[in-house]
Write a structure and sequence with these properties.
By secondary structure, this protein is α/β, with parallel strands linked by helices. Helices cover 40% and strands 15% of the residues. Strands 1-2-3-4-5-6-8-9 form an 8-stranded parallel barrel, surrounded by 6 helices. A 3-stranded antiparallel sheet has the order 7-11-10.
Length: 326
């Protein structure tokens, strides 16, 4: 595992509760971290930098009141695009709080690397192409979040199998796979590919601790893979959204031509119902505690199944494959 022991030994699962606009708030972050999952949230979910400061104080107090608890890390997410008018203020706030992990999105992380590294903070960057990978590594990031086809919200286009395998020979640091991960088996599959961690977004929207509305959560339970569409309506770049929110039918798919990201446009559409292809795995609204217990059981079952697969004689495997028993 390329994730440093100072982070990995605090995790129950190799997972990040993905930062989601208008969904990831203090309650979700705290619940995720208490359950051994990295809790991420966009800094713009706080209405102001002053509120961001208060959120970070409250999260720290809830998770680590005496400074000794070894809970999973908190990972604020910074939109580093030039249209983010709060970037400098939010960055300064994160530096004051001495955060240990930041995830950057939509733009070059280069301007924030030095001040964050100066406080010992690791920086992971969202990337959706090999060109983005090269620029992020040149900027000095510590980890990469690969946005692949099927990720919820702002998404990528690349096949996850191909993207991870293309990146790994060029980078031996932490790789996070984002897109289509819905259960313990897919989490393990990502590790087999060469990823170290995964993003879990859609599954965490359907929890009682998320800031999503009841109708949004209910729509996730009712939706299938076929109910996810790409649209530029929210932030100006392709994002995966539920058709229930887009109010589109199958014969009128939304245009997906890139129009260019605008932070204020994203914030004007805070009510958007984002969802990834992993919505197929959402069948109930649960607490974060229950969700992590389920994922942990699935992950261990998948590990045991994989170990058992490796012990089976080749003749048995051929026979099982012929009978679709693999």
């Amino acid at each position: 595992m390329a994730v440093p022991d100072t982070l990995s030994n605090r995790l129950t699962l190799p997972a990040i509760a993905a930062p989601m606009t208008s969904v990831s708030g203090p309650d979700l972050v705290i619940a995720a971290c208490r359950n051994g999952v990295i809790g991420a949230f966009p800094t713009h979910n706080a209405a102001t930098t002053r509120q961001l400061d208060a959120w970070l104080r409250d999260i720290t107090a809830a998770l680590n009141p005496d400074g000794t608890a070894r809970i999973a890390p908190v990972a604020p997410n910074l939109v580093v695009h030039r249209t983010n008018d709060r970037l400098r203020e939010d960055l300064d706030c994160l530096v004051r709080h001495g955060v240990e992990l930041v995830i950057t999105s939509v733009g070059s992380p280069q301007p924030v690397i030095a001040p964050l590294h100066a406080i010992g903070c690791r920086v992971f960057a969202d990337v959706s192409s090999m060109a983005h990978v090269r620029r992020a590594l040149d900027a000095g990031v510590d980890g990469l979040v690969l946005l692949t086809a099927g990720a919820g919200g702002q998404t990528g286009w690349a096949n996850p199998f191909a993207f991870v395998r293309a990146v790994r020979p060029h980078f031996d640091g932490p790789i996070v796979l984002a897109g289509g991960v819905s259960d313990g088996a897919s989490m393990l599959a990502a590790q087999v590919l060469g990823a170290d961690l995964v993003y879990l977004g859609t599954r965490f929207i359907a929890t009682t601790e998320s800031s999503a509305g009841d109708d949004y959560r209910a729509a996730l339970v009712e939706s299938t893979l076929d109910d996810v569409r790409l649209s530029t309506r929210v932030g100006g770049i392709p994002a995966s959204l539920l058709t229930a929110w887009l109010a589109l039918d199958d014969e009128s798919p939304p245009a997906i031509a890139a129009e260019g990201f605008q932070q204020d446009r994203l914030l004007r559409n805070r009510t958007a119902w984002s969802a990834g292809h992993s919505v197929a795995g959402v069948d109930a609204i649960t607490s974060v505690d229950e969700l992590v217990r389920t994922l942990t059981t699935q992950y261990e079952l998948a590990r045991n199944a994989l170990a058992g697969f490796g012990r089976r004689p080749a003749a048995d495997l051929i026979s099982a494959d012929a009978n679709h028993g693999l």
